[in-house]
Write a structure and sequence with these properties.
single chain, alpha+beta, Cytidine Deaminase, domain 2, six-stranded mixed β-sheet, four-stranded mixed β-sheet, globular
Length: 243
Amino acid sequence: MNNLAIVKIPAVRYKEETIQEITEPVVVEDKITLYLNGKKYITMVATNDSLTELGAGFFVAAGIAKRILTVTVDGTDVFVEADDVICVDGALESAGGFDPGHAESVSANDARITPDEIFAIREALNGDAWGETGGLHCTVLYHRHEQAAVFSDIGRHNTVDKAIGFMTLNGLNPAECVIGCTGRQPVGMVSKAANAGIPIIVSRAASTSAGIEAAEKSGVTLICFTRDRRFTVYAHPERISGI
């Protein structure tokens, strides 16, 4: 995360009947506008960080574009050029994220993950940015059983878009990837992974009934409530070794 995404803010702390003047690290909230093939598409609230990945990942995760040609960032404007663009009738979810309204089927019959890898992904979500601010979500991208990238943002949806954008821009095979998330997994979050072709989601939070249904129908392995040596699998446990 770049230094522009976190600022120092003066505050007053009350603790055990004492008052202390302090300076706290606080996440910067920005409005980012995405353009697709020269036309304004959406303005979203996000952290001004990894905007190239955010632009690419948003359109792939929503199933709007299959191939990203270029991404150019100018301040808080992100210009994406893409091929194979389709019209998607999406909607905003309860937390303000974009729900594409559909989820592609994932074909990754050989994808596997071990319980130890699930716990390693969970541990990787405890990043420095969260520890410093307490106000950021995080997504970890695993590729071929190794950590490939970590992204933070004030919006959980944005972190997934950034991870998918990184995967897309670096030509990684989605069937060999796993996404680990701090946030809960409603239908919009599960659909992002499915549309990008990622077969496994690991979350430390909950899902919803619609999220679970989307995972089951699209073929995504959905692992939630990942804690110290335990987790709950809601869909397609056959990809987990030993289950």
